[in-house]
Amino acid sequence: MTIILDGKKVAAILKEELKREITTVKEIGYEPKLAVMLVGEDPASVAYAKFLGKVSSNAGVLFELYQMVKSSSEEEIKQKINKLNCDPAVHGILMMMPLPPHVNKQRIMEEISPLKDVDGLHPFNRGHLISGGKCLHPATPLSCLEILKRSGISLAGKHMVVVGRGETVGKPLIFMALAENCTVTVCHSKTDDLSKFTKQADIVISAVGKPGLITADMIRPGAVVVDAGISDIDGNIIGDVDFEQVKEIATAITPVPGGVGSLTTVLMLKNVLKGIELQMESKIGVKPTC
Hints:
With 290 residues, the protein is of the alpha/beta class. Helices cover 41% and strands 16% of the residues. The chain contains ten helices and eleven strands. It has helices at 7-27, 43-59, 74-86, 105-111, 123-131, 139-149, 170-179, 194-198, 243-246, 261-281; strands at residues 3-4, 33-39, 62-68, 92-95, 159-163, 183-187, 203-206, 224-227, 231-233, 236-238, 252-253. The model has no long low-confidence stretch (mean pLDDT 95).
């Protein structure tokens, strides 16, 4: 019988953990605060920012949205980021995407203090992720691993095939899975005969954003399938995996929606608390100049 990996159930457990952790942090004198920056009025970004504010409030994390006009210059955005970097009351910073075309995303992400980078995208965090140091991990790949571990699925020694090499999910997931002692194979748009690799996997994680990419004939019977792909088709959120067909083959599978995406927000809030820990420990080298 196939197990449907319930992201909402796992998220509920994580939220209870988060509340206990917030209580502990407050007892030592910190009021966790997340600052979200939004440049422009992208409808999806505005909606997610409002959702994140509600979730933060419910969890006991202070939340503030800083919205700038679409015509804001790169320098103006950097100046605002630096103010947040230097504000000791702010423990996490999230830059909403997309940024306007005239703004360089990489330079903006590098401006955020790595100790407050709840997205885990700063080169400092990426470097420590690869080397095994303490850092903030990106929430979506972390969600992929957490939903497996919290559902009692062991990772050590398993052959994981990651489909997708994107900056936000695929690439960091490679090194995070290696840290869990998985054997990792990476596939992407230039891979010849994708099914040759996915059929070998104990665990398949797809993060491409292409509906129907992973079909039943590509999965070894008894494998575990995690769908981290997101596409909006006529207002419906669709994953990479042909869920109805693949669930007949897999031993466990995540749905979309209700799977990996259910964990990402609470794990991002956990990054705010981890950021406090890193900020307390840090003495030199990565603090912004204020």
